[in-house]
Specification:
Layout (H helix, E strand, L loop, with lengths): L2 H25 L4 E3 L32 E3 L8 H26 L3 H15 L1 H16 L1 H10 L4 H15 L6 H9 L1 H11 L10 E2 L2 E2 L17 E2 L5 E2 L6 E8 L3 E5 H16 L12 H12 L3 H4 L6 H22 L33 H7 L15 H21 L1
Antiparallel strand pairs: 1-2, 3-4, 5-6, 7-8
């Protein structure tokens, strides 16, 4: 698979992930229900013991009611099955966030530390992805030549590409590893959206009847169990869609504002996308695939601005910190990549920069004799030929020619 197609699929996956987040959020995969003995709001699902009352006929907005967050039950419909399978991942994120929040009572800092822990656990997989991508970029011209030679035979093209990768010692990480950071946005989204607004989260902190963390919540209160406010952001609520820059007009997708957190994330994502590209010499001609890669690296990050108004502040904190972590890992693994030249400018510190943990570039397989010498084995001595008497050799040659000549004259 060429890098342009790979990046295209990642971009499509990013857009589909945004749609999936919105759809699952609307379906409410994590069961939120009112506390026992508390009247449920219209449309809410109640746990055993809760009394559901019909919606009032008046137009008066009902008072908020406390809700309890508990694992999703297993039912026959597909959404319930998906929610039931999703619950353990959700619980892992929530337990990690709550455990850090108990030590550092600041939900913003807790989200940052949770992101760092998650990204650190992913370091081996992400390094493999970066190494594979850079090595595939190194043999990109050879792959394109194979595709040109076998453009009418896809099977032979795949076989030739596999043989080339095996010869160069390249193991492709696959698209699933590249999509993993995108998949992990979903549980963090639900943790922020539900975990920071529920009045009682203790059922989600209980595994096999054992309460993992000593968290005390008031199931009869309308206040969330965890404090969702971020002091160092002016007390902004991490579970809300705040930090919007108002627009003089409303757009169908953006609404009436643009999230300032979406703009910050887009700028950082642009830097990460350019660093993932191979280095480019100014003035050098690029083929169609390379131009497609660079175009997508510029425009794909702007997708976030389109759905920035439906992502809570806490999720943007996770995305920003996660992308900064990615930039640091890329800098240590692949260097500046295609970050520079930027508008024709290349700073001095980026010239001939060597990364801390560089990627071994693939090379052609050497011959057996070269490999044995490089491994330290002594070269095999050539067999000595016996010394010949030049005069005897010349005399035998003359006799042989003379006999052949006499035979010719006799005939």
């Amino acid at each position: 698979m060429s890098e342009s197609r790979r990046l295209f699929r990642i971009g499509i996956g990013l857009g589909l992930l945004a749609v999936l987040v919105i759809v699952l959020a609307a379906c409410n995969p994590i069961q939120v229900s009112p506390s026992p003995g508390v009247t449920a709001a219209p449309g809410a699902s109640a746990v055993p013991g809760a009394t559901a009352t019909p919606a009032p006929a008046s137009t008066v907005t009902p008072a908020p009611t406390p809700f309890v967050l508990h694992p999703a039950p297993l039912k026959a419909d597909p959404i319930s099955v998906l929610a039931w399978l999703f619950t353990p991942i959700y619980q892992a994120f929530l337990l990690l966030l709550v455990a850090i929040d108990l030590v550092v009572p600041d939900i913003g800092i807790a989200i940052i530390l949770t992101t760092i822990v998650v990204r650190t656990l992913m370091v081996p997989l992400m390094r493999r992805q970066m190494v594979s991508m850079r090595q595939m970029q190194a043999i990109g011209p050879e792959i394109r030549e194979i595709q040109r030679r076998f453009k009418n035979d896809r099977l032979k093209a795949q076989q030739a590409q596999s043989a080339l990768m095996k010869e160069r010692g390249i193991s492709q990480a696959g698209c699933l590893v590249a999509m993993l950071p995108l998949f992990l946005i979903l549980p963090m989204y639900q943790v922020v959206r539900e975990g920071l607004t529920a009045s009682d989260i203790t059922p989600m902190l209980t595994i096999f009847g054992f309460k993992v963390l000593p968290v005390t919540c008031d199931p009869t209160s309308i206040q969330p169990c965890l404090d969702p406010h971020v002091p160092w952001l002016g007390g902004i609520n991490a579970a809300h869609f705040e930090g919007m820059i108002p627009l003089p007009f409303a757009l169908p997708i953006l609404g009436a504002g643009i999230s300032i957190f979406a703009l910050v994330y887009t700028v950082i994502q642009l830097a990460a996308s350019r660093m993932a590209l191979p280095p480019h010499t100014p003035g050098a001609q690029l083929d169609q695939n390379a131009r497609t890669q660079r175009t997508m690296a510029i425009w794909l990050p702007f997708i976030t601005i389109l759905y920035g108004s439906v992502i809570p502040v806490g999720v943007f904190i996770y995305l920003i910190v996660s992308t900064i972590y990615q930039v640091i890992q890329q800098f240590l693994t692949t260097g500046w990549g295609g970050m520079f030249p930027l508008f024709g400018w290349t700073p001095g510190f980026a010239v001939d920069h060597k990364p801390r943990f560089p990627v071994a570039m693939p090379t052609a397989a050497a011959s057996t004799a070269t490999q044995s010498r490089s491994a330290g084995a002594p070269a095999r001595p050539k067999p000595e030929r016996p010394a010949l008497d030049r005069s005897a050799s010349a005399e035998s040659t003359i006799r042989r020619r003379g006999r052949q000549g006499r035979r010719g004259r006799r005939r």
